[in-house]
Design a protein that fits this description.
With about 625 residues, the protein is α+β, with helices and mostly antiparallel strands. The protein has four domains: about 200 residues, Histidine kinase-like ATPase, C-terminal domain (Heat Shock Protein 90), CATH 3.30.565; about 120 residues, 2-Layer Sandwich (Ribosomal Protein S5, domain 2); about 130 residues, formyl-coa transferase, domain 3, CATH 3.30.1540.20; about 90 residues, Ribosomal Protein S8, Chain: A, domain 1 (2-Layer Sandwich). About 35% of the residues lie in helices and about 20% in strands. An eight-stranded mixed β-sheet has the order 5-4-3-6-2-1-7-8. Strands 9-10-13-11-12 form a five-stranded mixed β-sheet. The protein has a four-stranded antiparallel β-sheet with strand order 18-19-20-24. A hairpin with a 4-residue loop joins β9 and β10. α1 packs across α5, α14 packs across α18 and α15 packs across α17. It binds adenosine-5'-diphosphate and magnesium ion (MG). Adenosine-5'-diphosphate binds next to α2 and α5.
Amino acid sequence: MTRRKVAVLPDHIANKIAAGEVIQRPASVVKELLENALDAGATHLVVSVKDGGRAFIQVSDDGAGMDEADAVASFLRHATSKIASYEDLEAIRTFGFRGEALASIGAVAQVTMKTRRAEDEVAVTVQVEGGKQIRLTREAREVGTTLTVQNLFYNVPARRKFLKSNSTEFRHLEDEVQRVAISNPSVALHFVNDDETVFKLKAGTLADRLLDVFGQRKVESLIEVHEKSDLVDVRGFIGKPSFSQRTRQGQYLFLNNRYIVNRTVNHAIFSAYEHLMEKGSFPFYLLFLDIDPRRVDVNVHPSKLEAKFEDEQALYRIVASLSRRALAEAGAIPSLTMQEGPDANAPLRFTSRQHSWPTEKESPLWQFPEGGTFNGKTGEILPFTDRGGGAGIAARLFAPPAEESLFEGDPARRQALPSGLRPDAEGTTLIWQLHNKYILSQIKNGLLIVDQHVAHERILYERALDRFATSMRSTQQLLFPQTIQLSAADYALMTELLPHFDLLGFDIKPFGKGTLVIEGVPPDARSGKEGKIVEEVLALYKEYEQHAPTSVRDNLAKSYSCKSAVKAGDSLTEEEMRSLIDQLFATKMPYVCPHGRPIVVRISIDELDRRFGRTS
Ligand code: ADP
Ligand code: MG
C-alpha cells in the first residue's frame, strides 16, 4: 500500500471547489457583485448581461472604489476589507462577510475589475482568469468600480452543462436584480439584457420603487403591515387574497435588508390565508424583517440565502398574527377599477384603507331581532323553537345562530362593517336584488354589489367552523325523519364522517345496509329536502377531497355551506337582503368566499363620475 501524504490544496483549486458552492449560476454572480457595490456605498448601478449571463455579466457602480493593492488582494480567498480587526470578526457572523465571492468568481471565469478611488488620478484594471492574475494596467475611469465577468464556468464543463436555457437563466438574473431593486429604493438601477434596457429605475422612496417594479394594479392590491416587538421589526406588504397567484413568484422576504428564503415565515403567512385562497394559489408578500444580527445566523447557507433565527417560534407567531389581523382589518374589497380612467397614474397612498369603525351604539346597522326568528315575508317574529319546517330562505337567513357570537358576543367581530360600507341613512337605505343573484345597495360613497350565494356561503362556513371549534351543537329536530339509501362506499364514508356531521348540527342515525335516517338538521340548513342536502354535501365533500384536499372539517364546512346557502336564482325579500349583508359583515372575512372568490364589489361615486365624464 502506498503511503499517502496529507497535502494542502493549491489555492486556485480550493477556490474552484468553493466556487461550486457560492456560484451556482449567473444569477449568483450578479447577486455577489451587487452586494459588493452596495457595500461600497454605490448610489447608481448598471447591470448588463448577455446570453443569460453565461457570456457576459457586468456591474458598474459609483461606490468608493479600491486602490491597486486592494484591487489585487480582493481576488484572494478570504480577502475582505470588511473585517479590519479581530473584534470585527463578529461582522463575519452578523453580516456574512467571508471574502469568498470574488475569489470564487475569479476561479471559474474571465474577470476584469476596473476601479478608482476619489483620491486617485487613474483607475487600475486587474484581469483574472481561472484564479490567476494575468494583467494589471492603468486606465481612465470615473470614481467607482466595474466588474466584468465573461464566459462563466469556461473551465468547469460540468457546471456549464448544468446551466439552463438562456431564458431560464435570465429569469433568475432578473429575480436577483429585482430583489436588490426592491430592498434599495434609494439606489438608481439600470438593467440591460442583450443590449436592451429591461428596466431603468430612478432613486426614490419604497413606494415609488414598488410602483416602478410591480405596476399600479399589483400595488393597489397590497395591504400594508407593520409590527415592532422586542424580537423583530416587521414591515412591508401582503397581497389581498383576491390577487393571489398561481406561481410561487411574488414572495419577497428580506432579513436586515438582504433577500432570504425562510420556511417559517412562509408558513406563517400562508396560515393567515388558509381559508381565503384556493389550493394551488400563493399569496403575494414583501416583508422586511429587522432583527438584531446577534439573534440570527446568516452563515448557514453558502450564498447566505437562508438564515437561522434564535426564536423561530416567536417569529412564526408574530408574522402569522400580523398577517391575519391585516387581512381581517383591511377593507380588502375588490373594487371595480376603471382601467382607462384618467387617474390611472395617480400617486398611490401606501396607507391601508382608513376605516372609522362604527361605535357600539351605531352597530350593527340592521339590528337582528332579539331572541327569535324574524320572518321577512310576514314581518312576524317567531320564537326560535317554533319555527316550522317550511320557513324557506327567510328561516335560514334569519335563524339565530344558537351558540353564535356573531351578533351579541364579540364586539370585535361586530366592528367589521367599515363606515364606508354602511348605508348612508339608516332605514332609508336603498337595497335591491338584481336578477335574483346580486344584492345592490347604496353606500356612503357609492354602490355596493354583493353576490348573494357566496355571501351566504361565507356566513355559513364560518358558523360551521365555529361549531367545530366550540363543539356547541344545535339541532333542529325534524317532525318527519327522512330516510336515505347510500352505496356501500358512501355509507362507509358517511359512518366515518358522522361525528363531524353531528357537530355541525345533523342528527343522523345509521341503520346498516346503506340506510341512514335523518332526524335533525342544523338550524340554518336548507329546509324541506333534508335528505337531499346530506347526499349533496357528501357528493361535494368527495369532490373537494379529490380536487382541493383540506382537513375533514374544513372540507365539510365548505361542502355544507355551499349546499345550504341561498342560490343564484333565489328571490330574496328586502329584510332577507339586509340580514344577509349584516351577517356578512359580521364574519371574519366578508370579502372572499371560502374558495377565494370575491363576495363584494364596490363602485365609488368618484369612479362613476369619471365614467360619465363628470368633473365635479
Ligand atoms: P466580502 O464582500 O465578503 O468582503 P468579496 O470577495 O465579495 O468579499 O469582496 C472582497 C473585497 O473586495 C471586499 O471586502 C471589498 O473590499 C472589495 N470589493 C469588492 N467589490 C467591490 C466594489 N464594487 N467596490 C469596492 N470594493 C469592492
Ligand atoms: Mg461580497
